[in-house]
Amino acid sequence: MYAVIKTGGKQYKVSVGQKLKIEQIPADIDSQIVLEEVLMVADGEQVSVGAPLVAGASVKVTVVAHGRGEKVRIFKMRRRKHYQKHQGHRQNYTEVRIDEISK
Q: Quick check: helix, strand or coil at residue 80?
């Protein structure tokens, strides 16, 4: 059984027991959260596709950790103009474990 969920502006295909890094959610570690934006649920041959969301479907997750991703380096340069700009960015994330998919 798997589901396609939407969180933080991105879509993820998840199954029970999977760990996933998503955009940061303001929640405590070891707390349970219910994600209600489920786009699709598949259980063997039965596939439920929402328009845009599947009615009554939800995914229960447990917050495992919070962290920051790897640094992304941004470099801009204009040739022959003596212009260079260096910048870096580290995105915050929340690591969650998928506990239950209900439809």
A: coil
Domain ranges of the chain: 2-102
- Cβ atoms of residues 63 and 35 within 8 Å: no
Tokens 């707390």 belong to which residue? 31
Instruction: Please report the DSSP string for 86-102 in residue order.
Output: EEEE--EEEEEEEEEEE
Taking each continuous run of H as one helix and of E as one strand, the counts in the chain are: 0, 10
In order along its 103 residues, the chain shows pLDDT tens digits of 999 999 999 999 999 999 999 999 999 999 999 999 999 999 989 999 999 999 999 999 999 999 999 999 999 999 999 999 999 999 999 999 999 999 8
